[in-house]
Amino acid sequence: MNPERSFGNGRLNHFVDVDELVASIGLDEEEIAWRKEFVGFDEADERRLADLESLLEANADQIADEFYENLLEHEEAHAIVDRSPKGVEALKRTQSAYLVSLATGTYDQAYFENRARIGKLHELLDMPLKQYVGQYGVYYELLLTRLSERVQRQVVDAAEEWAHEREEAESESTRAIDGLIDAFGFGDGGEGRPSEDELALETSFEEAIRAAIDDGMMDVLALLRIINLDLQIAVDTYVDSYARDLERATERRRQLAYEVESDVQAPIEELYDASELVANRAESISGHAANQASAVNRVSGELEDQSAAVEEIASTADEVRSESARTERLAAAGVESADDALDDLEAIDEAAEQTEAAVERLEERIDEIDEVVSRLESLSERTGLLATNAKIESTRSDAGDATMGVIADEVRTFAERTKQDLTSIQEAVEGVRADAVATIEATEETVDRVDDGTDSVRQTVDSLEAIHESAQSTAAGMEDVATATDQQARSLEVTAETVGDVSTAADRIADATESLAAASQEQTASLRDVGDTVSRLTDDPEPEPPVYERIE
């Protein structure tokens, strides 16, 4: 029975295409011949291996048992054995058959194709190359131990044969024994014995021993050479598998690179367009920002003008308050002078009733003047309130136009009343003067006593004239207030327009910013697509399940 058939029919074998395998590793007859020549394997080695057949057959089962006993002591190796569709006993039988096939092979193309299949089967079981090569160390020990015993027997046989031949040549058995003793250098060196130079092994015996040892070592070398050739083929199958995996991985990477290049091209172009759009939007935003800055500068200038106008209003209001206080003091002085005049006129009341009547009319005129003064005081307060309202309303941009209309109406009303009051004062003064003339004509007989009263009335008239002048100053101050208020109104109008421009610019900036944000989102999406595509370069494909898991 051909032992090679025992390890070529497992359930993993249909996963191995031997013809494709040997073609891939370049294992043709020429390659086999070169490898044999390179390691020195020749026909003499084939004959020596054939001579070892009986030894290998006799020890095959024991070597297989010891081989797997050692193998199963290691967890990683045990896991590989468990993955094999064969049981341990079947594997032992395969191992025994492989051992015998070392001595019974024809060492031709078919022999090495079978060795290639054996190496591929181990690779399909995911046995690491280090373990496959390393197990030969155990194999060597098991084989060389038996070969060592064989060489030792050969040496003993050679010694016995030499002794037998020597015995036949000697006439006496004792001489043969002595010769053997002498050959091994164990003589006593007495008389009649060889000299010290002759104590060494005889040349023929040494040659016989050396020849036996050399013959045994040549057997060992022949066995190591065929195992080395087997190992070369097995390693080639591993290297071929690694190369195929590398080629497939390289092809996948190359194909993936093409796909990535194709997929990335469009996002990159979109990214370029989005970047260009972002740059344009940024430039537009820069222009809007410059316009906004210019508008803000105009707002600042208008606000400065408005501030100056408000300060002017405040200053004018201060002057109006001063004039109002002065008017109040003058009015008080006029009242005192009038009181003095009444005292003097009361002294002459009995002398001239007409003078008393004239004085009464004069008192009524003075009362009218007091009312005018009161209205001027009220007007002064309204002027202060108007200034305050104008200042408050200046801070309101939305209702600025309506407030300025109210202020203008108030100013016009104030001016009309002031004019009427001034006319009333003039008329009252004229009436006082007329009454004074009538009083003088009616009371000529009391001129001497009225002189003192006249002086007092003169002082009253002076006070009233001062009041008139103060009223005029108040009117002029109110005109300044009106002018300042108009200026403030114009400033507020310009400010409102400027603020509107700022608001418009802000709207444009907001629109541009929104567009920029959208462009940035597009850019981000493009970058995400690029990232997803590029990440595929580092994605490893899902590995196929090993063949030993696909066995039915």
Q: What is the secondary structure topology, with strand pairs?
A:
Elements: H1 18-24, H2 29-39, H3 43-51, H4 53-71, H5 75-83, H6 88-104, H7 109-124, H8 129-169, H9 173-183, H10 203-347, H11 353-393, H12 400-442, H13 447-535
Helix pairs in contact: 1-7, 3-10, 4-6, 4-8, 7-10, 8-9, 8-10, 10-11, 10-13, 11-12, 11-13, 12-13
The value of Rg in angstroms is 68 Å
Per CATH, the superfamily of the largest domain is Methyl-accepting chemotaxis protein
Question: Beta fraction of the residues?
Answer: under 5%
Unreliable spans are 196-200
| Termini gap | 29 Å
Topology-level CATH name of the largest domain: Helix Hairpins
Number of helices: 13
> Would you count the extended β strands for me?
0
Question: At the first level of CATH, what is the class of the largest domain?
Answer: Mainly Alpha
Indicate the percent of residues in helices. over 70%
- Name the overall outline: rod-shaped
Order of helices and strands: HHHHHHHHHHHHH
CATH architecture of the largest domain: Orthogonal Bundle
Characterize the largest beta sheet: strand count, sense, and whether it forms a barrel: none
Number of spatially distinct domains:
2
Mean pLDDT: 76
